[in-house]
Amino acid sequence: MGGFPGTSLPPHLGRALREGLRGGVILFKPNVEGGPAQIASLTRAVWRQSPETPLIGIDQEGGRVARLRGPWLAVPPMATLASSGDVDLAHRIAMAVGRELGAAGITMNFAPVLDISTCPTNPVIGDRAFGTDAQTVERFGLAWLRGLQEVGLLACGKHFPGHGDTTKDSHVDLPTVDQPLERLERVEMAPFRAAAAAGVAALMTAHVVYTAIDRDRPATLSPAVCTDARERIGFDGLLVSDDLEMQAIAARWSIEEAAVQAVAAGCDLLLVCWSEEKQEGALQALVREAEGSSAFRARCEQACARGAAARKRIASHPLDDDGVQRALASVESRAIAAEIARRTAP
Question: Which residue from 75, 132, 125 is spatially nearest to 242, judged by alpha carbons?
Fold first, then answer.
């Protein structure tokens, strides 16, 4: 799944989608600066070039991680939302977010955050988490993922098996969590286990070393996490890597090494969010490995089957420009915006 510059689909990426050489696209702020009509035009182009229902992903969590701003629904940080104590409100907000994204042709939201904010000095999670205990994160995380999926989007819980207890940001360095396995399974992994039981479509891996599970490799590259731990929580959905261009990975492994190791470990979909050259390098490395190893080819076939199963769950379709505008101005969206403002006012 690749990212790209600009507000329109580059020809090379259109061809790659058409030929089945990309699993989908991820949208960031530079892709969505032109407003609802531009975004809808972009996603419709992706849909046209895709031989099957496309994976079009975005990080629309709420708070500081929301690629779409006004007139899209403004959602407070998850910690603020959970402090209301109203799980039903969280569910209805997630449905409203999902309806807006689906109207614009987006099929996958990289949310909810299922990390637990157990480290006050964590530089990257903080108020993105629903709370500081597993029970709160589980209750609100399940409400959020169900709301997204009930309106036809794929939810993707992150960052498995938990990024909340780190003191480093994996965008810039490789964090380590030294908690014992008993603690990881009881605390960090509990919301992910609940999400798996609730039928979450996808989970995203953390670029974090968990010394009790694998001392040598971050979760994204670790079979002990991506295969063994995912089995322990009962998850057989789509396992998505976090961006392989983040420094936790890129400073230590080439894109070719990271791509092969991530798929071999058990990742089904790889995010390469910025560089066309690195996207192509990752693809060619996977092809070479699959041509030379029957075991790796079988792992790729398993990953493709999980991707196909996820696509079948998508029930949203892009609307025309007027349809998008109506979705953003709907009675439901206006009502939930008013309720958010009333319930989360200081």
Answer: 125
